[in-house]
Amino acid sequence: MAAQESATAASAGPVIRTELLERRYGARLALHGLSLAVPAGSVFGFLGPNGAGKTTAVKLLLGLVRPTAGEAMVLGRPVGDPAARRRIGYLPELFRYQDWLSGREVLCSHAALAGIGGAMRAEAVDRALETVGLAADGLRRVGTFSKGMQQRLGLAVALLGTPELVVLDEPTSALDPVGRHEVRQIIQGLKASGVTVFLNSHLLTEIEAVCDEVAVLDRGRVIAQGRLPELLLAKGVEVEMEGMTADEIALLGGSPAEGRTVRFRDMAEGDVPELVAAIVRGGGRIHAVRALRTSLEQRFLDWLEVR
Amino acid sequence: MLEICRLTIVESLRRRLTLALFGATLLLVGFTGWAFAEISRLSSLQGVERLAQFSVLMLFLMLLFTGMLALTAVFTAAAAVAGEIESGVVAAILARPLRRASYILGKWLGLAVVVGAFALLAGSGEILVVSRVSGYAPPDPVAALALITGQALLLMTLSLALATRLSAVTSAVIATVGFFLAWMLGTVDLMGVALKYPSLMTVGEIGKVLLPTNALWQAAEYCLEPPGLLVLARSFGMFSGGPFVALAPQPPAVFVWAAIWTVLVLALGIWGLARRQI
Which of A123, A169, A289, B269 is least surrounded by Cβ atoms within 10 Å, i.e. has the fewest? Predict the structure, then answer.
Protein backbone atom coordinates (compact mmCIF):
# COMPACT_ATOMS: atom_id res chain seq x y z
CA MET A 1 0.00 0.00 0.00
CA ALA A 2 2.83 2.35 0.92
CA ALA A 3 4.50 1.51 -2.38
CA GLN A 4 1.35 2.31 -4.32
CA GLU A 5 0.90 5.59 -2.51
CA SER A 6 4.54 6.43 -3.10
CA ALA A 7 4.12 5.69 -6.77
CA THR A 8 1.26 8.16 -6.76
CA ALA A 9 3.44 10.66 -4.97
CA ALA A 10 6.19 10.12 -7.53
CA SER A 11 3.87 11.01 -10.36
CA ALA A 12 2.74 14.08 -8.41
CA GLY A 13 6.28 15.37 -7.85
CA PRO A 14 8.96 15.29 -5.20
CA VAL A 15 8.07 14.08 -1.71
CA ILE A 16 9.96 16.99 -0.17
CA ARG A 17 10.37 20.30 -1.92
CA THR A 18 11.87 23.36 -0.27
CA GLU A 19 12.44 26.80 -1.72
CA LEU A 20 15.03 29.07 -0.11
CA LEU A 21 14.12 27.80 3.34
CA GLU A 22 15.73 29.84 6.07
CA ARG A 23 15.85 29.71 9.86
CA ARG A 24 17.40 32.45 11.90
CA TYR A 25 17.88 32.45 15.69
CA GLY A 26 18.51 36.07 16.54
CA ALA A 27 21.65 37.07 14.66
CA ARG A 28 22.66 33.48 13.96
CA LEU A 29 21.62 31.96 10.66
CA ALA A 30 21.02 28.25 11.36
CA LEU A 31 19.83 27.47 7.85
CA HIS A 32 20.36 29.59 4.77
CA GLY A 33 18.39 29.30 1.53
CA LEU A 34 17.79 25.55 1.52
CA SER A 35 16.33 24.42 -1.79
CA LEU A 36 15.78 20.67 -2.10
CA ALA A 37 13.75 18.25 -4.15
CA VAL A 38 13.62 14.73 -2.75
CA PRO A 39 12.22 12.26 -5.30
CA ALA A 40 9.63 9.71 -4.20
CA GLY A 41 11.02 6.29 -3.39
CA SER A 42 14.59 7.51 -3.00
CA VAL A 43 16.94 7.35 -0.03
CA PHE A 44 18.10 10.92 0.38
CA GLY A 45 21.19 11.59 2.44
CA PHE A 46 21.53 14.86 4.25
CA LEU A 47 25.05 15.22 5.50
CA GLY A 48 27.27 17.77 7.01
CA PRO A 49 29.57 18.34 9.96
CA ASN A 50 28.21 18.84 13.49
CA GLY A 51 26.36 22.14 13.81
CA ALA A 52 25.83 22.47 10.05
CA GLY A 53 22.06 22.92 10.45
CA LYS A 54 20.92 19.40 9.54
CA THR A 55 18.65 18.88 12.55
CA THR A 56 17.20 22.38 12.14
CA ALA A 57 16.32 21.49 8.55
CA VAL A 58 14.68 18.22 9.65
CA LYS A 59 12.64 20.00 12.32
CA LEU A 60 11.54 22.58 9.76
CA LEU A 61 10.33 19.78 7.49
CA LEU A 62 8.28 18.30 10.34
CA GLY A 63 6.80 21.60 11.46
CA LEU A 64 8.55 21.46 14.84
CA VAL A 65 10.39 24.68 13.99
CA ARG A 66 8.98 27.51 11.90
CA PRO A 67 10.97 28.95 9.01
CA THR A 68 11.89 32.65 9.09
CA ALA A 69 11.82 32.73 5.28
CA GLY A 70 11.14 30.46 2.32
CA GLU A 71 8.63 27.68 1.94
CA ALA A 72 8.49 23.92 2.03
CA MET A 73 6.07 21.23 0.94
CA VAL A 74 6.11 17.68 2.29
CA LEU A 75 4.01 14.98 0.61
CA GLY A 76 2.30 17.70 -1.39
CA ARG A 77 1.22 19.72 1.64
CA PRO A 78 2.69 22.66 3.53
CA VAL A 79 5.05 21.63 6.33
CA GLY A 80 3.34 20.98 9.64
CA ASP A 81 0.06 20.00 8.00
CA PRO A 82 -1.45 17.20 10.17
CA ALA A 83 -2.65 15.27 7.10
CA ALA A 84 0.94 15.06 5.85
CA ARG A 85 2.32 14.20 9.28
CA ARG A 86 -0.04 11.21 9.37
CA ARG A 87 2.05 9.74 6.52
CA ILE A 88 5.47 10.51 8.03
CA GLY A 89 7.60 8.45 10.42
CA TYR A 90 10.23 10.35 12.41
CA LEU A 91 13.16 9.35 14.55
CA PRO A 92 14.49 12.45 16.36
CA GLU A 93 18.19 12.97 16.94
CA LEU A 94 17.60 13.12 20.71
CA PHE A 95 15.44 10.03 20.91
CA ARG A 96 13.67 10.12 24.26
CA TYR A 97 10.49 8.28 25.07
CA GLN A 98 8.43 8.03 28.24
CA ASP A 99 10.65 5.89 30.48
CA TRP A 100 7.67 4.96 32.65
CA LEU A 101 5.98 3.14 29.75
CA SER A 102 6.94 -0.20 28.23
CA GLY A 103 8.29 -0.26 24.68
CA ARG A 104 5.01 -1.70 23.47
CA GLU A 105 3.01 1.00 25.30
CA VAL A 106 5.13 3.74 23.67
CA LEU A 107 4.37 2.25 20.27
CA CYS A 108 0.65 1.83 21.07
CA SER A 109 0.49 5.45 22.14
CA HIS A 110 2.20 6.65 18.95
CA ALA A 111 -0.08 4.41 16.91
CA ALA A 112 -3.08 6.05 18.58
CA LEU A 113 -1.66 9.51 17.87
CA ALA A 114 -1.02 8.50 14.25
CA GLY A 115 -4.64 7.43 13.90
CA ILE A 116 -3.90 3.69 13.63
CA GLY A 117 -6.87 2.15 15.37
CA GLY A 118 -8.46 -1.12 16.36
CA ALA A 119 -6.96 -4.46 15.39
CA MET A 120 -4.50 -2.76 13.02
CA ARG A 121 -2.80 -1.12 15.99
CA ALA A 122 -1.62 -4.34 17.67
CA GLU A 123 -0.50 -5.71 14.32
CA ALA A 124 1.44 -2.52 13.46
CA VAL A 125 3.11 -2.52 16.89
CA ASP A 126 4.12 -6.20 16.61
CA ARG A 127 5.54 -5.63 13.13
CA ALA A 128 7.53 -2.57 14.19
CA LEU A 129 8.98 -4.36 17.25
CA GLU A 130 9.88 -7.34 15.09
CA THR A 131 11.57 -5.18 12.45
CA VAL A 132 13.91 -3.48 14.91
CA GLY A 133 14.67 -6.63 16.90
CA LEU A 134 12.79 -5.69 20.07
CA ALA A 135 10.03 -8.31 19.90
CA ALA A 136 11.31 -10.02 23.05
CA ASP A 137 11.66 -6.78 25.01
CA GLY A 138 8.35 -5.11 24.19
CA LEU A 139 6.98 -5.46 27.72
CA ARG A 140 10.04 -4.01 29.46
CA ARG A 141 9.95 -0.47 30.78
CA VAL A 142 11.79 1.98 28.49
CA GLY A 143 13.68 3.20 31.56
CA THR A 144 15.48 -0.15 31.69
CA PHE A 145 16.48 -0.05 27.99
CA SER A 146 20.09 0.52 26.95
CA LYS A 147 20.79 3.53 24.74
CA GLY A 148 20.96 1.29 21.69
CA MET A 149 17.62 -0.31 22.54
CA GLN A 150 16.07 3.14 22.97
CA GLN A 151 17.31 4.09 19.52
CA ARG A 152 15.84 0.88 18.12
CA LEU A 153 12.56 1.79 19.82
CA GLY A 154 12.75 5.22 18.18
CA LEU A 155 13.23 3.54 14.85
CA ALA A 156 10.20 1.31 15.54
CA VAL A 157 8.16 4.45 16.31
CA ALA A 158 9.25 5.91 12.96
CA LEU A 159 8.32 2.73 11.09
CA LEU A 160 4.84 2.36 12.67
CA GLY A 161 2.02 1.80 10.22
CA THR A 162 2.73 2.45 6.57
CA PRO A 163 4.56 5.76 6.38
CA GLU A 164 5.29 7.14 2.91
CA LEU A 165 8.20 9.19 4.17
CA VAL A 166 10.55 8.16 6.96
CA VAL A 167 12.79 10.87 8.41
CA LEU A 168 15.73 9.49 10.36
CA ASP A 169 17.93 11.93 12.24
CA GLU A 170 21.24 10.21 13.05
CA PRO A 171 19.58 6.77 13.33
CA THR A 172 22.71 4.80 14.26
CA SER A 173 24.46 7.17 16.67
CA ALA A 174 23.95 4.80 19.63
CA LEU A 175 24.24 1.49 17.80
CA ASP A 176 27.08 -1.01 17.59
CA PRO A 177 28.35 -2.21 14.17
CA VAL A 178 25.79 -5.03 14.07
CA GLY A 179 23.01 -2.58 14.85
CA ARG A 180 24.24 -0.22 12.14
CA HIS A 181 24.25 -3.03 9.63
CA GLU A 182 20.67 -3.92 10.61
CA VAL A 183 19.56 -0.31 10.21
CA ARG A 184 21.09 -0.24 6.73
CA GLN A 185 19.08 -3.35 5.88
CA ILE A 186 15.91 -1.74 7.26
CA ILE A 187 16.52 1.35 5.11
CA GLN A 188 17.09 -0.80 2.06
CA GLY A 189 13.89 -2.69 2.87
CA LEU A 190 11.98 0.58 3.06
CA LYS A 191 13.38 1.64 -0.30
CA ALA A 192 12.42 -1.70 -1.81
CA SER A 193 8.83 -1.15 -0.70
CA GLY A 194 8.78 2.32 -2.25
CA VAL A 195 9.07 4.37 0.94
CA THR A 196 11.07 7.58 0.70
CA VAL A 197 13.78 7.87 3.34
CA PHE A 198 15.32 11.17 4.41
CA LEU A 199 18.50 10.20 6.22
CA ASN A 200 20.25 12.82 8.26
CA SER A 201 23.74 11.74 9.21
CA HIS A 202 27.35 12.69 9.47
CA LEU A 203 28.42 9.07 9.11
CA LEU A 204 29.68 9.01 5.56
CA THR A 205 29.93 5.22 5.21
CA GLU A 206 26.27 4.98 6.17
CA ILE A 207 25.28 7.57 3.58
CA GLU A 208 27.49 6.03 0.89
CA ALA A 209 26.07 2.56 1.53
CA VAL A 210 22.37 3.37 1.20
CA CYS A 211 21.73 6.76 -0.41
CA ASP A 212 20.76 7.54 -3.98
CA GLU A 213 21.06 11.29 -3.63
CA VAL A 214 22.71 13.59 -1.15
CA ALA A 215 22.81 17.22 -0.13
CA VAL A 216 25.79 18.47 1.81
CA LEU A 217 25.23 21.19 4.36
CA ASP A 218 27.83 23.37 5.99
CA ARG A 219 27.23 26.38 8.23
CA GLY A 220 23.57 26.47 7.23
CA ARG A 221 24.23 26.41 3.47
CA VAL A 222 24.04 23.63 0.88
CA ILE A 223 27.50 23.31 -0.61
CA ALA A 224 26.87 20.29 -2.85
CA GLN A 225 23.83 18.37 -4.00
CA GLY A 226 23.05 15.64 -6.51
CA ARG A 227 22.99 11.93 -7.27
CA LEU A 228 25.66 10.11 -5.33
CA PRO A 229 27.34 8.23 -8.24
CA GLU A 230 27.70 11.51 -10.13
CA LEU A 231 29.00 13.38 -7.11
CA LEU A 232 31.62 10.72 -6.50
CA LEU A 233 32.90 11.01 -10.04
CA ALA A 234 36.23 12.81 -10.00
CA LYS A 235 37.19 15.06 -12.90
CA GLY A 236 39.39 12.81 -15.03
CA VAL A 237 39.99 9.23 -16.12
CA GLU A 238 42.28 6.38 -15.32
CA VAL A 239 43.71 4.42 -18.21
CA GLU A 240 45.13 0.93 -18.08
CA MET A 241 47.86 1.10 -20.69
CA GLU A 242 51.40 0.15 -21.71
CA GLY A 243 53.96 1.05 -24.36
CA MET A 244 54.81 4.62 -23.30
CA THR A 245 57.55 6.01 -21.08
CA ALA A 246 56.90 8.03 -17.95
CA ASP A 247 58.08 11.20 -19.72
CA GLU A 248 55.77 10.62 -22.67
CA ILE A 249 52.88 10.03 -20.25
CA ALA A 250 53.77 13.21 -18.34
CA LEU A 251 53.69 15.19 -21.57
CA LEU A 252 50.03 14.14 -22.00
CA GLY A 253 49.26 15.23 -18.40
CA GLY A 254 49.16 11.75 -16.85
CA SER A 255 50.73 10.38 -13.71
CA PRO A 256 51.51 6.65 -13.34
CA ALA A 257 49.70 4.86 -10.50
CA GLU A 258 49.87 1.23 -9.43
CA GLY A 259 50.54 -1.42 -12.13
CA ARG A 260 49.64 -0.36 -15.65
CA THR A 261 47.26 2.32 -14.44
CA VAL A 262 47.83 5.94 -15.38
CA ARG A 263 45.63 8.76 -13.98
CA PHE A 264 44.74 11.84 -16.00
CA ARG A 265 43.19 14.33 -13.54
CA ASP A 266 41.30 17.56 -14.16
CA MET A 267 40.08 16.43 -17.54
CA ALA A 268 36.71 17.30 -18.99
CA GLU A 269 34.59 14.43 -20.28
CA GLY A 270 34.72 15.80 -23.82
CA ASP A 271 38.54 15.64 -23.92
CA VAL A 272 38.66 11.84 -23.37
CA PRO A 273 38.44 10.78 -27.09
CA GLU A 274 41.32 13.16 -27.94
CA LEU A 275 43.40 11.71 -25.05
CA VAL A 276 42.78 8.15 -26.27
CA ALA A 277 43.82 9.17 -29.82
CA ALA A 278 47.00 10.86 -28.50
CA ILE A 279 47.98 7.72 -26.54
CA VAL A 280 47.48 5.51 -29.61
CA ARG A 281 49.47 7.97 -31.77
CA GLY A 282 52.29 7.89 -29.22
CA GLY A 283 52.50 4.08 -29.48
CA GLY A 284 50.59 3.26 -26.34
CA ARG A 285 48.24 0.29 -26.09
CA ILE A 286 45.03 0.83 -24.10
CA HIS A 287 43.38 -2.00 -22.12
CA ALA A 288 40.70 -0.01 -20.34
CA VAL A 289 39.50 3.56 -19.73
CA ARG A 290 37.53 4.31 -16.56
CA ALA A 291 36.09 7.45 -15.08
CA LEU A 292 37.95 8.41 -11.92
CA ARG A 293 35.92 7.91 -8.71
CA THR A 294 36.61 9.18 -5.26
CA SER A 295 35.35 8.13 -1.82
CA LEU A 296 32.58 10.09 -0.19
CA GLU A 297 34.89 10.90 2.68
CA GLN A 298 37.48 12.44 0.32
CA ARG A 299 34.74 14.28 -1.56
CA PHE A 300 33.27 15.55 1.69
CA LEU A 301 36.63 16.93 2.82
CA ASP A 302 37.11 18.55 -0.60
CA TRP A 303 33.70 20.23 -0.32
CA LEU A 304 34.43 21.59 3.10
CA GLU A 305 37.76 23.03 1.95
CA VAL A 306 36.06 24.65 -1.04
CA ARG A 307 33.57 26.64 1.07
CA MET B 1 -6.24 15.07 22.98
CA LEU B 2 -7.72 12.13 24.89
CA GLU B 3 -4.58 10.05 24.32
CA ILE B 4 -2.44 12.82 25.88
CA CYS B 5 -4.94 13.03 28.77
CA ARG B 6 -4.70 9.26 29.25
CA LEU B 7 -0.89 9.36 29.16
CA THR B 8 -0.83 12.16 31.75
CA ILE B 9 -2.97 10.13 34.15
CA VAL B 10 -0.94 6.96 33.52
CA GLU B 11 2.25 8.94 34.16
CA SER B 12 0.93 10.12 37.53
CA LEU B 13 0.14 6.50 38.42
CA ARG B 14 3.43 5.04 37.19
CA ARG B 15 5.58 7.74 38.72
CA ARG B 16 3.77 7.06 42.02
CA LEU B 17 2.46 10.62 42.22
CA THR B 18 -1.03 9.26 42.77
CA LEU B 19 0.27 6.95 45.48
CA ALA B 20 2.10 9.84 47.17
CA LEU B 21 -1.04 12.00 47.07
CA PHE B 22 -3.12 9.16 48.45
CA GLY B 23 -0.59 8.66 51.25
CA ALA B 24 -0.60 12.40 51.94
CA THR B 25 -4.42 12.32 52.15
CA LEU B 26 -4.38 9.50 54.71
CA LEU B 27 -1.69 11.22 56.75
CA LEU B 28 -3.46 14.56 56.62
CA VAL B 29 -6.89 13.25 57.52
CA GLY B 30 -5.48 10.99 60.22
CA PHE B 31 -3.49 13.77 61.86
CA THR B 32 -6.40 16.21 61.60
CA GLY B 33 -8.72 13.71 63.27
CA TRP B 34 -6.28 13.15 66.11
CA ALA B 35 -5.57 16.89 66.61
CA PHE B 36 -9.25 17.88 66.62
CA ALA B 37 -10.12 15.02 68.97
CA GLU B 38 -7.44 16.20 71.38
CA ILE B 39 -8.58 19.84 71.22
CA SER B 40 -12.17 18.76 71.65
CA ARG B 41 -11.22 16.68 74.72
CA LEU B 42 -9.09 19.37 76.34
CA SER B 43 -11.17 22.45 75.49
CA SER B 44 -13.42 23.80 78.24
CA LEU B 45 -15.31 26.14 75.87
CA GLN B 46 -19.02 25.66 75.35
CA GLY B 47 -21.82 27.00 73.13
CA VAL B 48 -21.00 29.89 70.79
CA GLU B 49 -17.43 30.08 72.01
CA ARG B 50 -16.86 26.42 71.15
CA LEU B 51 -18.49 26.95 67.76
CA ALA B 52 -16.23 29.95 67.13
CA GLN B 53 -13.16 28.00 68.20
CA PHE B 54 -13.77 25.05 65.89
CA SER B 55 -14.90 27.12 62.92
CA VAL B 56 -11.72 29.24 63.11
CA LEU B 57 -9.62 26.09 63.51
CA MET B 58 -11.30 24.54 60.49
CA LEU B 59 -10.65 27.67 58.43
CA PHE B 60 -7.01 27.62 59.48
CA LEU B 61 -6.77 23.94 58.55
CA MET B 62 -8.41 24.49 55.17
CA LEU B 63 -6.12 27.45 54.48
CA LEU B 64 -3.12 25.20 55.05
CA PHE B 65 -4.72 22.53 52.88
CA THR B 66 -5.31 25.11 50.15
CA GLY B 67 -1.63 26.05 50.24
CA MET B 68 -0.59 22.42 50.03
CA LEU B 69 -2.98 21.81 47.17
CA ALA B 70 -1.70 24.90 45.34
CA LEU B 71 1.90 23.70 45.55
CA THR B 72 0.89 20.23 44.38
CA ALA B 73 -0.99 21.65 41.39
CA VAL B 74 1.79 24.07 40.47
CA PHE B 75 4.69 21.60 40.60
CA THR B 76 2.79 18.74 38.94
CA ALA B 77 1.73 20.90 35.99
CA ALA B 78 5.15 22.51 35.52
CA ALA B 79 6.93 19.15 35.48
CA ALA B 80 4.38 17.53 33.20
CA VAL B 81 4.79 20.10 30.42
CA ALA B 82 8.28 21.63 30.73
CA GLY B 83 9.72 18.22 31.65
CA GLU B 84 8.51 16.68 28.39
CA ILE B 85 9.73 19.64 26.34
CA GLU B 86 13.17 19.72 28.00
CA SER B 87 13.71 15.96 27.78
CA GLY B 88 12.81 15.88 24.07
CA VAL B 89 9.90 13.44 24.53
CA VAL B 90 7.59 16.04 23.01
CA ALA B 91 9.46 16.14 19.66
CA ALA B 92 8.29 12.68 18.62
CA ILE B 93 4.76 13.38 19.92
CA LEU B 94 4.32 16.70 18.12
CA ALA B 95 5.64 15.21 14.87
CA ARG B 96 2.44 13.14 14.89
CA PRO B 97 -0.78 14.50 13.38
CA LEU B 98 -1.65 16.17 16.68
CA ARG B 99 -2.31 19.87 17.02
CA ARG B 100 -0.31 21.59 19.71
CA ALA B 101 -3.55 22.93 21.18
CA SER B 102 -4.76 19.34 21.59
CA TYR B 103 -1.52 18.46 23.35
CA ILE B 104 -1.99 21.29 25.86
CA LEU B 105 -5.70 20.60 26.34
CA GLY B 106 -4.97 16.88 26.86
CA LYS B 107 -2.32 17.72 29.45
CA TRP B 108 -4.68 20.15 31.18
CA LEU B 109 -7.48 17.60 31.31
CA GLY B 110 -5.24 14.82 32.64
CA LEU B 111 -3.72 17.05 35.29
CA ALA B 112 -7.16 18.39 36.23
CA VAL B 113 -8.34 14.81 36.86
CA VAL B 114 -5.33 14.08 39.12
CA VAL B 115 -5.32 17.42 40.99
CA GLY B 116 -9.13 17.56 41.17
CA ALA B 117 -9.35 14.00 42.55
CA PHE B 118 -6.76 14.81 45.22
CA ALA B 119 -8.50 18.08 46.13
CA LEU B 120 -11.92 16.47 46.42
CA LEU B 121 -10.73 13.34 48.22
CA ALA B 122 -8.41 15.01 50.74
CA GLY B 123 -10.63 18.11 51.14
CA SER B 124 -13.79 16.12 51.81
CA GLY B 125 -11.82 13.87 54.17
CA GLU B 126 -10.67 16.90 56.13
CA ILE B 127 -14.12 18.43 56.43
CA LEU B 128 -15.76 15.11 57.30
CA VAL B 129 -13.25 14.23 59.99
CA VAL B 130 -13.46 17.69 61.60
CA SER B 131 -17.28 17.59 61.56
CA ARG B 132 -17.31 14.11 63.02
CA VAL B 133 -14.77 14.76 65.78
CA SER B 134 -15.68 18.31 66.81
CA GLY B 135 -19.36 18.34 65.92
CA TYR B 136 -18.95 21.53 63.85
CA ALA B 137 -20.63 21.18 60.42
CA PRO B 138 -19.91 24.04 58.00
CA PRO B 139 -22.97 25.45 56.19
CA ASP B 140 -21.93 24.67 52.61
CA PRO B 141 -19.02 22.20 52.45
CA VAL B 142 -19.73 21.15 48.84
CA ALA B 143 -19.44 24.70 47.52
CA ALA B 144 -16.33 25.26 49.64
CA LEU B 145 -14.68 22.15 48.20
CA ALA B 146 -15.63 23.17 44.67
CA LEU B 147 -14.08 26.62 45.22
CA ILE B 148 -10.89 25.23 46.74
CA THR B 149 -10.60 22.78 43.82
CA GLY B 150 -11.27 25.63 41.40
CA GLN B 151 -8.47 27.63 43.00
CA ALA B 152 -6.07 24.69 42.54
CA LEU B 153 -7.09 24.26 38.90
CA LEU B 154 -6.61 27.96 38.30
CA LEU B 155 -3.06 27.82 39.65
CA MET B 156 -2.41 24.60 37.75
CA THR B 157 -3.45 26.38 34.54
CA LEU B 158 -1.06 29.25 35.26
CA SER B 159 1.83 26.88 35.92
CA LEU B 160 1.05 24.84 32.80
CA ALA B 161 0.90 27.96 30.62
CA LEU B 162 4.23 29.22 31.97
CA ALA B 163 5.81 25.79 31.46
CA THR B 164 5.21 25.97 27.71
CA ARG B 165 7.93 28.63 27.53
CA LEU B 166 9.93 28.39 30.76
CA SER B 167 11.72 25.64 32.66
CA ALA B 168 9.77 23.53 35.17
CA VAL B 169 11.42 25.14 38.20
CA THR B 170 10.95 28.72 36.94
CA SER B 171 7.30 28.11 36.05
CA ALA B 172 6.55 26.54 39.43
CA VAL B 173 8.34 29.30 41.34
CA ILE B 174 6.51 32.07 39.47
CA ALA B 175 3.11 30.44 40.02
CA THR B 176 3.87 29.83 43.72
CA VAL B 177 5.00 33.43 44.24
CA GLY B 178 1.84 34.55 42.41
CA PHE B 179 -0.32 32.47 44.77
CA PHE B 180 1.22 33.97 47.93
CA LEU B 181 1.25 37.47 46.44
CA ALA B 182 -2.47 37.18 45.65
CA TRP B 183 -3.06 36.12 49.26
CA MET B 184 -1.07 39.11 50.55
CA LEU B 185 -2.92 41.51 48.25
CA GLY B 186 -6.22 40.02 49.44
CA THR B 187 -5.21 40.82 53.02
CA VAL B 188 -4.20 44.36 51.97
CA ASP B 189 -7.65 44.73 50.39
CA LEU B 190 -9.36 43.66 53.65
CA MET B 191 -7.24 46.15 55.58
CA GLY B 192 -8.18 48.85 53.08
CA VAL B 193 -11.88 48.11 53.65
CA ALA B 194 -11.48 48.09 57.45
CA LEU B 195 -9.42 51.29 57.59
CA LYS B 196 -11.19 52.93 54.63
CA TYR B 197 -7.90 53.46 52.72
CA PRO B 198 -8.85 53.70 49.02
CA SER B 199 -5.28 53.08 47.78
CA LEU B 200 -5.08 49.74 49.62
CA MET B 201 -8.49 48.77 48.29
CA THR B 202 -7.41 49.59 44.74
CA VAL B 203 -4.28 47.47 45.07
CA GLY B 204 -6.41 44.64 46.44
CA GLU B 205 -8.85 44.90 43.53
CA ILE B 206 -5.97 44.86 41.03
CA GLY B 207 -4.64 41.72 42.74
CA LYS B 208 -8.04 40.07 42.41
CA VAL B 209 -8.09 40.74 38.67
CA LEU B 210 -4.50 39.64 38.05
CA LEU B 211 -4.84 36.36 39.94
CA PRO B 212 -8.28 35.58 41.42
CA THR B 213 -7.10 32.72 43.66
CA ASN B 214 -7.52 34.60 46.92
CA ALA B 215 -10.99 35.76 45.94
CA LEU B 216 -11.94 32.10 45.49
CA TRP B 217 -10.42 31.28 48.88
CA GLN B 218 -12.47 34.02 50.53
CA ALA B 219 -15.59 32.66 48.85
CA ALA B 220 -14.73 29.19 50.17
CA GLU B 221 -14.10 30.66 53.61
CA TYR B 222 -17.62 32.15 53.64
CA CYS B 223 -19.05 28.70 52.90
CA LEU B 224 -17.20 27.20 55.87
CA GLU B 225 -18.12 29.81 58.51
CA PRO B 226 -21.11 29.44 60.87
CA PRO B 227 -23.76 31.98 59.71
CA GLY B 228 -24.77 32.82 63.31
CA LEU B 229 -21.26 33.90 64.11
CA LEU B 230 -21.19 36.20 61.09
CA VAL B 231 -24.40 37.91 62.25
CA LEU B 232 -22.80 38.36 65.64
CA ALA B 233 -19.62 39.80 64.14
CA ARG B 234 -21.58 42.29 62.05
CA SER B 235 -23.60 43.33 65.12
CA PHE B 236 -20.30 44.23 66.78
CA GLY B 237 -19.56 46.59 63.88
CA MET B 238 -17.14 44.41 61.90
CA PHE B 239 -17.42 45.26 58.21
CA SER B 240 -14.18 43.74 57.03
CA GLY B 241 -12.92 40.21 57.38
CA GLY B 242 -9.38 39.00 57.93
CA PRO B 243 -7.27 36.09 56.78
CA PHE B 244 -9.56 33.74 58.73
CA VAL B 245 -12.88 35.58 58.46
CA ALA B 246 -14.97 36.45 55.41
CA LEU B 247 -17.96 38.54 56.37
CA ALA B 248 -19.67 38.58 52.98
CA PRO B 249 -20.00 36.26 49.99
CA GLN B 250 -18.01 37.13 46.86
CA PRO B 251 -20.04 38.75 44.07
CA PRO B 252 -20.88 36.44 41.11
CA ALA B 253 -18.56 38.53 38.91
CA VAL B 254 -15.61 37.01 40.79
CA PHE B 255 -16.54 33.48 39.69
CA VAL B 256 -17.24 34.57 36.14
CA TRP B 257 -13.87 36.32 36.00
CA ALA B 258 -12.08 33.28 37.52
CA ALA B 259 -13.56 31.08 34.77
CA ILE B 260 -12.67 33.60 32.04
CA TRP B 261 -9.20 34.02 33.56
CA THR B 262 -8.60 30.24 33.42
CA VAL B 263 -9.69 30.05 29.79
CA LEU B 264 -7.55 33.06 28.85
CA VAL B 265 -4.44 31.68 30.56
CA LEU B 266 -5.00 28.28 28.98
CA ALA B 267 -5.26 30.03 25.60
CA LEU B 268 -1.99 31.81 26.40
CA GLY B 269 -0.42 28.42 27.10
CA ILE B 270 -1.66 27.11 23.75
CA TRP B 271 -0.24 30.19 22.05
CA GLY B 272 3.02 29.78 23.98
CA LEU B 273 3.53 26.23 22.76
CA ALA B 274 2.42 27.08 19.22
CA ARG B 275 5.19 29.71 19.03
CA ARG B 276 7.80 27.49 20.65
CA GLN B 277 10.56 25.97 18.54
CA ILE B 278 10.84 22.33 19.63
Answer: A123
Averaged pLDDT for residues A71-77: 91
Q: What is the pLDDT, as a whole number, of residue B265?
A: 97
Under a CB-based contact definition with an 8 Å cutoff, are residues A213 and A38 in contact? Answer: yes
Cα–Cα distances in angstroms (integers) from residue B207 to residues B149, B186, B193, B198, in the given order: 20, 7, 15, 14
Contact A290, A264 (CB under 8 A): no
Q: What share of chain B is helix, strand, coil (3-state, %, to 5)?
A: 85, 0, 15
Q: Average pLDDT of A252-256?
A: 86
CA angle B107/B109/B114 to nearest 5° reads 95
Instruction: Give the separation between CA B41 and CA A275, rounded to whole angstroms.
Output: 114
Report yes or no: B277 at the A interface, CB cutoff 8 Å: yes
pLDDT at A307 over 60: no
CA torsion angle B73 B77 B80 B83 (round to 10): -110
* φ, ψ of residue A88 in degrees (nearest 5): -115, 140
Q: Which has the higher per-residue pLDDT, A295 or A78?
A: A78
Residue ranges of B 55-84 with Cβ closer than 8 A to chain A = none
CB A196 within 8 A of CB A8: no
Q: What is the predicted pLDDT for the residue at A165?
A: 95
Domain segments of chain B as ranges: 2-275
| Residue of A94, A118, A100, A121 lying closest to A110 (CA atoms) | A121
Q: Is the ipTM of this complex over 0.90?
A: no
Pick from A169, A162, A134: which is nearest to A150 by CA?
A134
**Contacting residues of B for A62, CB less than 8 Å apart:** 95
CB A267 within 8 A of CB A237: yes
Structure confidence at residue B78 (pLDDT): 95
Burial group, residue A307, by CB count within 10 angstroms (0-12, 13-18, 19+): exposed
**How large a percentage of chain B has pLDDT more than 70?**
94
Nearest CA-CA partner of B242 in B105, B60, B77, B62: B60
Residue B146 has pLDDT above 90, yes or no: yes
pLDDT tens across A180-217, in order?
888 888 888 888 888 999 999 888 888 888 898 999 88
Q: Give the integer Cα–Cα distance in Å for A226 and A295.
A: 15
Phi–psi pair at B69, nearest 5 degrees:
-65, -40
pLDDT value, residue A222: 85
Mean pLDDT on A80-108:
90
Do B278 and A64 count as a contact with CB atoms less than 8 A apart? yes
Distance from CA of B32 to the nearest CA of A (A): 34
B3 interfaces chain A, CB cutoff of 8 Å: yes
Model confidence band, residue A306 (pLDDT cutoffs 50, 70, 90): low
Walk me through the domains of chain A, giving residue ranges and CATH numbers: 2-230 (3.40.50.300), 232-306 (3.30.70)
Cα(A111)–Cα(A237) distance, rounded to whole angstroms? Answer: 52
Give B14's Cβ-side CA count (13 Å radius).
15
Q: How far apart are CA A35 and CA A44, in angstroms?
A: 14
Would you state the pLDDT for residue A74?
Answer: 93
Whole-angstrom Cα distance, residue A142 to residue B22? 26
Q: Dihedral (C-alpha) B81, B85, B87, B90: value to the nearest 10 degrees?
A: 100
